[in-house]
Every structure is written in C-alpha cells, then in structure tokens.
Amino acid sequence: MSISDAPTNTQETTAAERLTAMIAGYKPLPGIPDEFIGADGRPRDYWLRYLNSLTGLGEDDIGRRFAAADRHIRDVGVSYRSYGDTRERTWPLSHLPLLIEATEWDQIARGVEQRAELLERIIADIYGPGELITAGDLPAAVVASSADFLHPLHGVTPPGGKFLHFIAVDLGRGPDGRWWVLGDRAQAPSGAGYSLANRLVLSRAFPALYRDMNVERLAPFFQAFRYGLTALSERSDPRICLWTPGPLNETYFEQAYLARYLGFILVEGGDLTVRDGKVHVRTIAGLKRADVIWRRIDGDFADPLELNSQSRLGVAGLVDALRENGVVLANALGSGVLEGPAMLSFIPKLCRKLLGEDLLLPNIATWWCGQQKERASVIEDLDDLAIAGAFGNPVLRFPQNQPVIAGLLNADEKTRLIAAIKERGIDYVGQEVVNLSTTPVWNEDRLTPRPFVLRVYAARTAKGWSIMPGGFCRISDRADARAVSMGAGVQSADVWVLADKPVEMITLLPTNETARIRRLMGNLPSRAADNLFWLGRYLERVEATLRLIRCLAGRMINIDAETGLAGWTIKKVTGLLVAWHAAPKAAARDLLKLCGIALHSETDYGSALSLVRDARRAASVIRERLSPDTLRLIDELHQSIGENRKPVLSEADAYEQADAALRTIAALSGLAQENMNRGAGWRLFDIGRRLERAINSCRFARQFSGANAPADDLEVLLDLADSQITYRSRYLMGVELNTVRDMVVLDPFNPRSVAFQLERLGEHLENLPVLSDDGMLEKPRRQIIKIAAEVTTAVAADLDTDLILSFEKRLLELAEAVAARYFLQGPHNARADRWSGLA
User: Fold this and answer.
1) What domains can be seen in the chain, in order of their start residue?
2) How many CB atoms lie within 10 A of CB 230?
3) Model confidence over 363-416: pLDDT tens digits?
4) pTM for the whole thing?
5) H or E element at residue 13
6) Comparing C-alpha atoms, which of 91, 85, 460 is closest to residue 257?
7) Where is each Circularly permuted ATP-grasp type domain found (predicted)?
C-alpha cells in the first residue's frame, strides 16, 4: 500500500494494531544508540513512516512478500562461503532495511570522501617519495612490517598517477551518536555486489514502499565507477576485466554478479598473460589486450615471479608490466598496507598533515604498541582495551584478524599477552572497546534490536570521488554490541538512504546517444569456453545415465527380468551402468540397489548425482554467462536427484525419479536453444552436448545393435535414442536391425542420431574464430570434415560394431582436438601464445 493511499477506519485500526504488536517490547540495549529509537526515547519519524506503510500491507501480504524475497535469493543463487566451507550457503538477507536520512548521509559521504583522498595521498607517499617516514609522521616499521607492503612496487607510479580507485570504510555509530571508522578496506573491498543483490531483492518484494520512501538509487554510483575505469584506458573501447581468485573464494558469487552487471570480463589468473609489457586475456580467438583490471585478489598473490612464488592465482610478469604502464590495475598492488590496524593510530595526525583539517569521521581510538609510551599505556589499561594484531596477525590462540577483549581473558592468558606485547610490541595494537548501535531486525513478527556494521564504498570517477548512496550492512545475531566481538555478521541488510523528494529512475543501460550497437559479447576467455564445453558434456552424460536407469526400471516393471531375451537385454543395460562407473559391479546382482546407487551415489563418479554436481560446479564458475533460469534449472536437477532419496527404492520410484530429472534436462535443453545468445559461448556449450551425445549414441548402438541383435535390444536402443515415436511413424513393421541402425547412427534428419550431431558440430566449428589467416583448416575442422564424410557415405547394411567403434574413437579424438585448440592447456601452450590474435 502506498503511503499516500487513504485506508478505511477499519484498515487504520488493523494496521495500528499490527504496528503496536510489532514494536511491543522493543528496547534498545542499555546505553547503546539505536537506529529506530532516538536519543529522546521516541521512534524516529522516518522509521514510523516505513513501518506504517509495511503494516498497512496486511499480515498475510507481508509474509508472502518476505517469502518471495527468500525464494528470489534461492532462485537467483545469491550465495557465499565462510572460510573453509566446501559448499556455498544461501545469502542471509534481513527482511528489514537499514534506514538513513539524507542529511545524515551527507555527513557520512563527506567523511568517506575525505578519507578516500587521505588514503590516496598516504599510499602515494609510501610508494613514492616517502616524505611521511622521513619527517617522522609515519614510523617506517608500520609500513615495512606489513605483509601487504610490496617492495618491488616502490617507485612504480600507476597510469594517471592514482593508486586507489575503489575503497570501502567500515563504520559503526558510537555511544555519542557519531559515526566512527572501524577500519579501511583498500586492498580488494568486498560486499558491493551483495549490496546490489540486497537492493534487487527488497525493491522487488516491496516496490511501492521502495518508491514511496524515496530511496536513492545505486545505479548512478556504479555507472560513474565504470566510466571512471573506462577513462583510464588509452583506447576508446577498452577491455575491462574483473580479476577473481576463483570459484572457491568466499565472495565469488558477488564477483560474478558485478562482472555481469557492469559488463566486465570475469577472469582468473590463468586467463591472463603478459606479452611485450602488456597484459592480455587468453581467448578462443587468441590473446586480446586487457586495458583495465579491477582486482579481487590480494596483492602479494598477483605475480609469482616477483611477489609470492607459491601463488597459483597470479600472472607471471605482472609487476614488470605495471612498471611499463602496460595495464591499469584497480587498486594498485600494495594498497593493502593501508588496512593494517597499526595505520589507524596515525590517520588523525596524517589527516591534519596532508589535508590541513581534522577527520570528519573519527577513528576508533587505536594505540600502536611499537612505540614505548603507547605500549606502556596499553599494558597499564589492558582490562579496558581490545588487543588486535597490528598487521592482521593473530593474538595468542585466537582467530586471525579477530581482536580480543583483554578484560575477558583469564589471569594466565593476560600474563602471556602482556609478555608478548613487551617482547614484540610492534605486532600489537590496543583499541578502545566501542559499543555499536543497533538496528531493528524482523524476529517472529516482532522487531528486535541487533548491532550492525555499515560498509560504505567510494569510487574514483572523472569528477573525483563518488560515494555509494547505501552500502553493505552486516548485522550480528547476538545482542553483544561490542565492535570487536562482532566478526562477520550473520545477516545482511539493504541500506536505504532516504531522499527528501522523489528519486529519478536511473539505469546502467546506455542511452541512445551513447550506445554503440553490439551483437556479440566480445571474445570468450578460454577458461569460460572450457567450462561451457564441459557443462554441455556433463548434462549429456547425466541424460544418458538417466535414460539407462529409466529403461532398466521400466523393464523391471513390465517384463520378467529372469526369463528369455529380456534378461540378456537387462544385463547389457546394467553392464553399461557398471562400465560408466555409475555403480559398482557387485550391485548388478540386485537391480533395485543398482538403480538406487546409479541415481544417488556420491562416491561413484558416473552416477547421476555425481554428474549433476560436476555440471553444477562447471556452471557455478561461469554464472556470469548463464541466465538465472538456467542456474535455477540446474539447481532443480540437483535437488530432484539429491533430495529425493528413499530408504527403500521401488521400481516405480526409480522410474519416476529418472523421468522427472529427464524432464528438467529437457527444459534446460529448450532454454539453451531458445534463450542463449548465438555467440561463441553457446557454440562451445552445444559442441560439448553434441560431442557427448554422438559418443553415447555410438556406445548405445554398439551395445544394442550388434549382429543378430534381438528385438528387445533394438527396442532398448530406440528408447535410449529417444526415437521410438519417429521410428513407429516411419516404419509400420516391427523393429529391424538395419532400419534401427540407420535411424540412430546415419539419419541426418533425426536430432538424436550421430549424423545429426556431426552436422551441428561442423556448423559450430566453422563459425568459431580462427587464429591464423593463411586459409588452412585448423585441426578440429579437418577432423570433423573427415568423420562427417565417413558417416554421410556409410550405409546401414555395412554398419557393424567395428565401424561404429571407429566413429566413436574419431569423436573422442575430436573432443581432444577441440580442447587443445580452444581451452587453457598450461602457460606455455602454443594456442595461447599465438601472436596473430593480439588486439
């Protein structure tokens, strides 16, 4: 319901009652500021305005919208990993946003902008003239002791002379009601993508409420950031990459999400190479110049030659390319030195020194124990302070990067901590224990106060620093409001900055004046091509396995498996499942057990569940190239197989589970054919599908259409090739060997035949880019032409199992040739090093 809507008296009473019940018992923590309840003990007006509109929707409607928001998060696949997790977790979004008025936000924005400029000047001096250290304003040990200070980058000035392009500042509201800086993020700040995802989810769940509250849009900030990176390039149409550590990174989802949203190429270290002082992306069309790279990996992992030699995430020679201004890197390597807690001790003084003014947003009070006076003071006041590693190092036995409240330690721990500070004070800082303010969260139809931290982002643009009107809010699940004990919040909230007038709708889509028509998405990185190819192959393998299971379960239902030729046919089906490692050989003695294992086994790598997980992994690392519907269907396929296990599986259960999964695969195939753009990515995906389908069809044909094959075998072959209806409509007689062989292998009009797959493969390979301009056919093209000619000229009467096996072997060789030509095969592979593709 819109705020301007005038409800009836009954509606007003009902809404008022709901609001009263919602806020009943809501009490801020003693002595702690709260975002809902003001210093005067009364609810803030803008929160009441929001809650009145929310309760006006009605209890049932609110519940439906919250459920829709949760469902959208699952459908889109918004996820994260905690450190050490092997599986992704669903993103924990708070149903209520954090509300901040425009006047207060202006103060935050000015403070963050000031801090961004200050950090830029500090890092420019650290890697440049070093005047701050020479003058004694910044101890050399604060810089040199940081693992994030990268000495090989000293003296290297980035293109344009700017080191920082995207930073974040963590804020908390202190006891005095002012916002305090808890930490700076200048290395590779995370969370901006989740801020976008949070906004998308809540604005869709409550569109009228979002509009009527005059919430500032996020798109202009990202638009300005994108234009800012574009302006850094020497070329008018630069290639901008987002450099990810890879799919196992805790925030890989948001990296892929940002790449899609901003139109950047998502790359890993293996996708990049340095040639002639410049950085290039390895694509299926050869090496293509990378003009600007927004990095999300730590600086010391960026170059195994000059930085961390054990890094497998970096690009050899990158530091040398930076020396030659061969690429723009955002942020500059080594900027992580600004994040150390020790640096916070000197920020207020450096602000007065470099900017001639006091900090608009004060730091959390910090004392570096590398100085004698400060060390003695920290030890004296130990019980009232939190102790943190000065450079991210752990404190005693406690987790890394987690400060500890000294007053909560036992006597032995305090003694050891004091000894450690005295022995090597350079490694520790003492910090004031700040109590964070609280914000309302939805808890069983009521509001409950919980502490939060707000991360605000600043991006460099052509006109200076731009501050995101919103941010990344982390909410603790505990009532303990001490900043140092919060860690990673268990919920995230959208941040609504409330303007005093309606906000203009702005999109990242280009205008008619600025848009350049483009029908293809640029050059496809080899890593992405590899995963698309294998996604197609895995899905086909799942389908083939499921067809065997469905066929077996169907025969168990309709035919006595212990008599006649049907028994031999079933043994061939089970033999294929065992040969494909869908189930162990011993399971073949119990057909129901075999079906269950082939469906659900987590240890047999050829089972349907294992293959679906392989497909899911391949899809997860290229999610920026797949539609939400595609990702959702892959998840549904995984759920239909992995979450429908029964202690005792009947023939009907096995048949229905396989049949349901095959329907989902059919939907995926239809989506790929009707919705995927016909670029190189779709072609590589379809090449994987067609190759695997042709190989499996050959295997099916060899198994079930040998000389003197009985009718039961031929019927099974038609089932596996999904050609029963076509065969019955074409041949009025019963099954016959040559006609079945022709339909499954040689018929170019049957979309399940080997010949049909070869035609499609030839079309795809003909339309993929080539590396040379000498007119010579590349190896995959030569191979497909040869095998297609053999299949096209073959006749069913001569089609024995040996000839079919030769087709199968040639298809396997073609798959290897495709991989060698288009995918990453190592840093020195000839394909990746061909110079003719440089652009």
Assistant:
1) 9-90 (no CATH), 365-432 (3.30.1490), 531-676 (no CATH), 678-824 (no CATH)
2) 16
3) 999 999 999 999 999 999 999 999 999 998 888 777 656 788 888 889 999 999
4) 0.88
5) helix 9-23
6) 91
7) 97-475
